[in-house]
Amino acid sequence: MHEMAICENIRTLIEEQARTQHFSRVDRVCLEIGALSGVEVEALRFGFDVVMRGSVAADARLEIVETAGTAWCLPCAVTVSIGRRYDPCPRCGSHQVQVTGGEEMKIRELEVT
Amino acid sequence: MSQARLIQLEADILGKNNGYAAANRARFAKAGILALNLVSSPGSGKTTLLCRTLALLAGEFPCAVIEGDQQTSADADRIRATGAPAIQINTGKGCHLDGHMVGHAVDHLNPPDASVLFIENVGNLVCPAAFDLGEAHKVAILSVTEGEDKPLKYPDMFAAADLVLINKTDLLPHLDFDVDLAMANARKVNHRVRLLQVSARTGEGMAAWLDWIRGARLMALSGRPSQAAE
Ligand SMILES: Nc1nc2c(ncn2[C@@H]2O[C@H](COP(=O)(O)OP(=O)(O)O)[C@@H](O)[C@H]2O)c(=O)[nH]1
Ligand SMILES: [Mg+2]
Ligand SMILES: [Zn+2]
Ligand SMILES: [Zn+2]
Ligand SMILES: [Zn+2]
Fold first, then answer.
1. Which domains occur in chain B, in start order?
2. I need a surface site. Which of A14, B30, B119, B228 has the fewest CB within 10 A?
3. Å from A107 to nearest chain B CA?
4. Distance in angstroms (rounded) separating the CA atoms of residues A72 and B70
5. Range of the domain at A108
6. Does the structure show a pLDDT above 90 at B94?
7. How far is CA B23 from the centre of its chain?
């Protein structure tokens, strides 16, 4: 499952931080996940608990900030918001839209001790 | 000593992979190598298409293949039978290739300057969309036995692809697959995508695919970012 691979990347990043920033426990992990990133937030939550087992983040609380999808509509020449990749422009119905935001997958912050 | 504190990371979760991919891309650019990342569901015909492509391009310019799809363990052998060098990446349980694996495979394969490097990704339309390998283009293969709605079910992959090959067109007379609908769905998620119909079995439509490769290769050779998809 795709979300497992994402969680493994998160674990690697956290363990790297634990070494360089000298902490032994993560209490909270805050992620930013874009609506168009292709990640299922529920699957990510499930994968997170499984993948973090035995790591410094084994007991961490997962917080996910979901950001909206935005796109530039060529015919309208304005930024519009879209919920899914194949959504047309909500103003004119065109599919000539270029995604400009909502693809991000980031670790925003870690609360550690 | 152990006080709670906040670390503001703002780190891209795929940042590491993106770093490896960028290094691969720089290496390809320097050597004038065109790298193509072939993605599809299992069984869409990536290996068959590659074998036919390599046979048709033999003698024109050097080609090399990185095999990531382990649906059949013999894929790299099938490729080598065409005379092209190939290396199989052992992804184990992995459901996608990543930039790090491809970097090592390129070290081993050592494709010559000005060659075309085909990378057959793991048969999976989900995560290979997120893991950049440093390729110039993703080429998605959709076979006519799969259903016209694939682009809408896997929009990330079809949005990431610069070219979609609709394969197994020789089977069309036996199916109710609507090619126009499949193409319209692909354009819904990617209005700039190029679409070509091929049969890796009969060779129908291969000439246009080979021309697309030649065009993309010239772009890679000239060191400019490739515009072949436009
Ligand atoms: N009829 C037909 N069968 C094809 C075509 N291309 C591939 N196949 C068959 O589809 C199956 C899977 O092909 P393969 O190349 O292994 O797919 P891969 O998993 O994407 O590498 C094999 O039985 C091929 O012979 C085609 O153009 N037409
Ligand atoms: Mg294969
Ligand atoms: Zn519009
Ligand atoms: Zn994967
Ligand atoms: Zn390494």
1. 3-223 (3.40.50.300)
2. B30
3. 5
4. 39
5. 2-112
6. no
7. 18
Sheet containing B63-67: which strands, arranged edge to edge?
B86-88, B63-67, B116-120, B34-40, B137-143, B163-167, B194-197
Is pLDDT of B135 > 60?
yes
Q: Which residues pair with B167 in a beta bridge?
A: B143
| The length of chain A, given as a count of residues | 113
Cα–Cα distance, A78 to B203 (Å, whole number) = 44
CATH number of the domain that A74 lies in?
3.30.2320.80
Is the CB of residue B19 less than 8 Å away from at least one CB of chain A? no
Decide: B71 in ligand 1 pocket, CB within 6 A. yes
Sheet holding A105-112, edge to edge: A61-67, A26-34, A105-112, B5-12
Q: Verify whether the Cβ–Cβ distance B13 to A31 is below 8 Å.
A: yes
B40-61 confidence digits (pLDDT tens): 999 999 999 999 999 999 999 9
The token pair that represents B25 in the structure block: 């891309």
Residue B94 — φ and ψ, nearest 5°? -55, 140
What's the gap in Å between the CA of A110 and the closest CA on chain B? 5
Query: CA nearest B163: which of B187, B140, B144?
Result: B140
Instruction: Give the mean pLDDT of chain B.
Output: 93
Q: DSSP strand E in chain B: where?
A: 5-12, 34-40, 63-67, 86-88, 116-120, 137-143, 163-167, 194-197
